[in-house]
Amino acid sequence: MDIIKWARIKSPWVFHFNAGGCNGCDIEVLASLIPRYDIERFGMILRGSPRHADVMLLTGTVTRQIKDRLIRIYEQMAEPKFVMAIGSCAMSGGVFQNCYSVYEGADKVIPVDVYVPGCPPRPQAIIDGAVKLLQKLAAGK
Ligand code: SF4
User: Could you tell me if the CB of 105 is within 6 A of ligand 1?
Assistant: First the structure.
């Protein structure tokens, strides 16, 4: 394993983007970051700028209104970049599915690497999704 890949797996910096929804998923993302669940033990640190992040933690419904901003923020992240769609809204539109303004999943707008189901998913599920992403990276996918 080369040193860049090793460093990427050991210290993925994350950026949280809320596209919409009810904020239930955001609370769970924050819960996974605090010492009780401690996602930082995997080297994950929350950054305030997409330019400093490797992984986008995407929550909420992707609407036609937010689409352009989401794409702009995704493009600001440096390559290689990864996206975790957290919660039913980000995965499929969730309870807002079939609404005229809602995309049926963030993957209709940007590439998604890991899906974390739930409404909202518990912190354990978010951590499980993060570990699956790291396993994908370790496998070279
Ligand atoms: S998936 Fe559920 S908890 Fe999360 S933003 Fe949507 S409605 Fe709220």
Answer: no
Kind and range of the H or E run holding 135: helix 123-138
pLDDT tens column, 65-117: 999 999 999 999 998 899 999 999 999 988 999 999 999 999 999 999 999 99
Decide: 56 in ligand 1 pocket, CB within 6 A.
Answer: no
How many of the other CB atoms lie within 10 Å of CB of 31?
Answer: 16
> Cα(23) to centroid of ligand 1, in Å?
6
Stated pTM of the model: 0.92
Q: Does any ligand 1 atom lie closer than 6 A to the CB of residue 120?
A: yes
CATH of the domain at 60: 3.40.50.12280
CA distance to 17, 22, 33, 109, 125, per residue, from 28 (Å): 13, 12, 9, 24, 10
